[in-house]
Design brief:
Length: about 400
Amino acid sequence: MSTIKLFNIYHSFLIKKLYLIVYILLLFIAVLAIMIGVNQMNQKDDNFTIGIVDKDQSKETKLILNAIGDGQSLGNDLSIKHYNEKRAHNLLEKKKIDGYFIFKDGMTKAFYQNGELPIVVNTFDTQSVESIIILQLTDSVYSRLMLSMGGAMSYASLYPNATENELLTMMTDMLFAGLNRSGSFDEEPVKVFDTLSYYTISIYFVSIFLFFFSIFSILKMNQKDALKERLSMFHFSYEKLTIVRGIFSLGYTILWSVVGLWIIIKFLKPEFEMYNLNALIMSLSYYLFFLTCSFIFIDIAFRNAINYILKIGLTLVILLFSGAIIPIIYLKGLSGGLIESLPFTIVYNQLLELFLNNYIIDLHPMFYWNILIMIGLLTTSIYWRYRQ
């Protein structure tokens, strides 16, 4: 029987069981949608908006405001806005800003006379995390302002003949250097994965496996009954049927992989950028290749109880040792690096880094060896069955 006829038989059977595919698709889409929805609801706005009220209106306070700018020199998630006192108070009451500073009238004179900077900090309360952060930020900024202004006073004492323009230039340099938090050191942020985003990628990863497994099993429902008698007289019929069933399942699983990928990129809005699309396609292709070959190999080489045991084992490996459910960091060292070299673990790590960090990690040394081993096992089993 030709391969085309086998495809037609499977296709006609699958049409009759179309409701099963629809149920599976709706289930996976619903789970992905729930995870993405919960992830969006739990995303908090980490940006701080702080107002500044300048009641002193001196040259020094204007220099300070210019040095602070929009707040980016103090923190990446900080926004500084200039208001009058009434406007700032109203916005704080409505919780549209997190707090505001007041440069009191006569602040500059007080500094030159007493060495103090009378800055008032207003927050909605004193117990919330936002208020504590603002107060800590104020303490940090205040300390750097005092150092900068103190440096300016020292310069004026050491160079009494300096012109006003020279003093202003020096003070500007001192303020910009003092208030720029990255001026004295380079930041190396430590990135951690958001838990909900992590498990959303995990659900997508596992759903590809479950979808393939489901289609592969649904198609096998017809194999032992309607097709058994029809194909029993043909040599190598069972093996050919299994290969076609695997390829047919692969085609439908590719469609789900594309749909699921679109849902994640569209609604989860991960860090992934389209210029890394080739790396993403390569990772998904690697994953689909191993799923297809693994199931074909198990069905061709093993029968009855061993067949079921191996499929259960494969399921457990993908669920427990890929990193999809238990983060791989907790499994390191348990098997001397064996778990990290599994093809499904390699793929999951690549997908995780691509989606959540837009980063391509170095290929594991076993990446290509796994392909060669899988091809060798599959080729050997097909040849062995063909020779029987």
